[in-house]
Design goal:
By secondary structure, the chain is an alpha+beta fold. The protein has 3 helices and 5 strands; from the N terminus they run H-E-E-E-H-E-E-H. Strands 1, 2, 3, 4 and 5 form a 5-stranded antiparallel β-sheet that branches. A hairpin with a 5-residue loop joins strand 4 and strand 5. Helix 1 runs parallel beside helix 3 and helix 2 crosses helix 3. The longest helix is centred in the first third of the chain and has 16 residues.
């Protein structure tokens, strides 16, 4: 529950800040972030999702792309993750999302 709350608190704030985030859903340590080109139409942002995943990987954070349209970033943190490690991973993920323009 602690991991889920920490993740939810951060990612919910991102949804308000970054228009590329169409939806955030999850429970506990497993979360999905749906990236879209347009929130109104929910057009999938597949290329942007791949770019975010690549930026994360280059910075040492492994994410998985998923979904019918390939526009979901999946994340599953280890249950033994320390708070500092979780925050560092979220910092990397946020930076990758912030640096990815919507095409």
């Amino acid at each position: 529950r602690r991991i889920g709350k920490a993740f939810s608190d951060r990612v919910t704030a991102w949804k308000a800040r970054y228009p590329i985030i169409g939806d955030v859903r999850g429970v506990g340590a497993m979360w999905a972030i749906e990236l879209v080109k347009d929130r109104r139409t929910k057009a999938p942002a597949k290329d942007e999702t791949s770019a975010v995943a690549k930026r994360c990987y280059e910075r040492g954070l492994i994410t998985i792309t998923a979904g019918t349209y390939g526009n979901i970033l999946r994340s599953l943190m280890p249950l033994v993750i320390r708070d500092e490690e979780l925050q560092e991973g979220l910092d990397v993920l946020e930076g990758a999302i912030r640096e990815t323009p919507i095409a």
